[in-house]
Amino acid sequence: MSGTAKGLPDVVVFSAEEIQERVGTLAQEIEAHYPPGEEILVIGLLKGAFIFVSDLVRALTRPEVEVDFLIAALYRDGTDPSGDVQLLYESAARIAGRHVLLVEDIVDSGKTLGRIGDALTRRAPRSLEVCALLHKRRTEKLRYEPRWIGFEAPADWLVGYGLDYGGRYRHLPFIAALAGGEEEAR
Ligand code: IMP
Ligand code: MG
Question: Are 120 and 96 in contact (CB under 8 A)?
Answer without folding.
Answer: no
